[in-house]
TrEMBL record:
Top-level taxon: Bacteria
Region: Disordered, residue numbers: 159-178
UniProt protein name: TRAP transporter small permease protein
TM annotation in the entry: 12-34, 46-67, 88-113, 133-152
Membrane disposition: Multi-pass membrane protein
Length: 178
């Protein structure tokens, strides 16, 4: 699991760098529109595909760190055994969902490669296959992350991953500092 966590962190760093690049692209596009009356060709298509890529690159680390969206109102009111049963169900459901997305996305990704599928017209064409392949790989990785979390939960090591969120520090007055 340590290697998986390292890969998930690198994917997260890659997505952060990608977001920084997108911010620079947006600024350059806006300045190009205002100062030179000429936007950067393909900005819309790049942003459109990048939002998907950035989101799915962050998935595995969110799963490993326990940061996926969840509601604990029910879980907090259950006994330990029922809570564990519900968590196991959630891990299985998450793994199944992302495995199904990965499986369903393989054929369109291969078709995009074969056909040279792109978005945009005119001067700038953005190929869609890199994002489609990234979607397949990151969803498969997310499914593996859920299975790893399931195994950790069943073996009693749930919450012991090095990237698990730590409680926010409290000031002497008891106020939350975050």
């Amino acid at each position: 699991m340590r290697h998986q966590l390292k890969i998930a962190r690198w994917a997260h760093v890659l997505s952060a760098g990608w977001v920084f690049f997108l911010a620079l692209l947006i600024i350059a596009d806006v300045l190009g529109r205002i100062l030179f009356l000429h936007p950067i060709a393909g900005t819309k298509e790049i942003l459109q595909n990048s939002v998907i890529a950035v989101t799915f690159l962050q998935l595995p680390l969110a799963i490993y760190s326990g940061s996926m969206l969840r509601t604990t109102i029910l879980l907090d009111n259950l006994g330990p055994r029922a809570a564990k049963t519900l968590r196991v169900f959630a891990w299985l459901l998450g793994a199944g969902l992302f495995a199904a997305i990965a499986y369903a996305s393989i054929t369109p990704a291969l078709s995009a490669i074969r056909l040279g599928e792109y978005e945009g017209e005119g001067a700038m064409r953005i190929y869609t296959w890199p994002v489609r392949i990234l979607l397949v790989v990151s969803c498969a990785f997310a499914a593996v992350a859920y299975v790893s979390a399931l195994i950790a939960d069943l073996t009693g090591k749930h919450g012991e991953t090095p990237s698990a969120p730590k409680p926010a520090p409290k000031s002497p007055a008891g106020a939350n500092l975050t």
